[in-house]
Amino acid sequence: MEINKIQHSKLDKVDPNNSAFGVNISDHMLICVFKDGKWGEPVIMPYGGMNYSPALMAIHYGQAIFEGMKAYKDSNDNVFLFRPEKNFERFNKSAERLAMPKITKEIFLDGLLSLIDLDRNWVPTKEGNSLYIRPTMFASEEMFSARISNEYTFAIMTSPANSYYDKPLKIKIEDYYTRAVDGGVGFTKCAGNYGASFYPTKLANEAGYDQVIWTDSKEHLYFEESGTMNVMVRIGDVLYTPPTSNTILSGITRDSLVTIAKHNKIEVKEERISVDDIFNAYKSGNLKEIFGCGTAVVINRYSHVAYRDFIMELPELDEKNSFAIFLKKQLVDLQTNKSEDPFGWRYKV
Ligand code: PLP
Ligand code: COI
């Protein structure tokens, strides 16, 4: 792999331990171009702009997908990825659904390792911080016909990150707008899913909420997921999460938490959760916790969950009693090499 190193690192101006999410992009990026039916050689180069025109097909027709993953440093400066092959697999599922070429394991995973190794000084050491990794692929042919592009650019960029949200969230259960429909692209990480979610989220923000919980497109009664998170609900001592489907992104954090919870003898039910289930549990005092989980947010507690005019307030549980706090600690300890790795999820760089 060709590696063109930067002359002067931006690390003299950026403190990775004090960087807001996604603002400071690290020194290097990986680029690989698909043309004439095949992938070219990946190149690592200084991060910066590329020369495209507004005729770029990704902009007009939306063939654009991405992934989100993180690198963590332990107290001995070892750097680890977390289940990166899962992101690789999901990236190719997204690519297939968007009629884009699949990326090879060599370009995605070996490229990732070389890039993170080169920019390892960008991986934060402060607890709760990590290096966010953003692989992406977009149609980079320039022309106007509405058809599958013949050219694609794959890129990996990284950026030091602190916590995505710094407070518990007030959530609106969405009862009108839809994120994803059966047979659609909800299970992919395509750009359009996010673009389409911004307007309903903006309306929720204007009404005083931080995020929405998306519900099914037919009745708006069953929980799907929430913003950039999968959603988990604790009723009594049982942890519920909707089963993944073609309308829900199959979260790697979600899967990891389900596994960790079961490993720790917490009962987990991957079942549909209806608004009525939540109301009934709330009224009987059994609704203990609702939280979102994802790579960027890790685990974020919901303090208020509203359906139309009915607002459910969920008091904070302490460390001894909260599943969310327990699971977050288990997950982060595993990611940062503070605990055993019984599942073989850590991946040393
Ligand atoms: N759902 C959506 C829409 C997301 O953007 C994310 C974040 O990637 C998730 C769920 C959680 O997925 P993961 O845990 O793999 O980051
Ligand atoms: C992630 O958690 O990796 C995400 O994709 C969140 C991102 C859209 C900000």
TrEMBL record:
<dbReference type="GO" id="GO:0004084">
    <property type="term" value="F:branched-chain-amino-acid transaminase activity"/>
</dbReference>
<dbReference type="InterPro" id="IPR043131">
    <property type="entry name" value="BCAT-like_N"/>
</dbReference>
<comment type="function">
    <text>Acts on leucine, isoleucine and valine.</text>
</comment>
<dbReference type="GO" id="GO:0009098">
    <property type="term" value="P:L-leucine biosynthetic process"/>
</dbReference>
<dbReference type="InterPro" id="IPR033939">
    <property type="entry name" value="BCAT_family"/>
</dbReference>
<keyword id="KW-0663">Pyridoxal phosphate</keyword>
<keyword id="KW-0028">Amino-acid biosynthesis</keyword>
<dbReference type="GO" id="GO:0009099">
    <property type="term" value="P:L-valine biosynthetic process"/>
</dbReference>
<dbReference type="InterPro" id="IPR036038">
    <property type="entry name" value="Aminotransferase-like"/>
</dbReference>
<feature type="modified residue" description="N6-(pyridoxal phosphate)lysine">
    <location>
        <position position="189"/>
    </location>
</feature>
<comment type="pathway">
    <text>Amino-acid biosynthesis; L-leucine biosynthesis; L-leucine from 3-methyl-2-oxobutanoate: step 4/4.</text>
</comment>
<dbReference type="InterPro" id="IPR043132">
    <property type="entry name" value="BCAT-like_C"/>
</dbReference>
<dbReference type="InterPro" id="IPR005786">
    <property type="entry name" value="B_amino_transII"/>
</dbReference>
<dbReference type="InterPro" id="IPR001544">
    <property type="entry name" value="Aminotrans_IV"/>
</dbReference>
<keyword id="KW-0032">Aminotransferase</keyword>
<keyword id="KW-0808">Transferase</keyword>
<dbReference type="GO" id="GO:0009097">
    <property type="term" value="P:isoleucine biosynthetic process"/>
</dbReference>
<protein>
    <recommendedName>
        <fullName>branched-chain-amino-acid transaminase</fullName>
        <ecNumber>2.6.1.42</ecNumber>
    </recommendedName>
</protein>
<comment type="pathway">
    <text>Amino-acid biosynthesis; L-isoleucine biosynthesis; L-isoleucine from 2-oxobutanoate: step 4/4.</text>
</comment>
<keyword id="KW-0100">Branched-chain amino acid biosynthesis</keyword>
<comment type="similarity">
    <text>Belongs to the class-IV pyridoxal-phosphate-dependent aminotransferase family.</text>
</comment>
<dbReference type="Pfam" id="PF01063">
    <property type="entry name" value="Aminotran_4"/>
</dbReference>
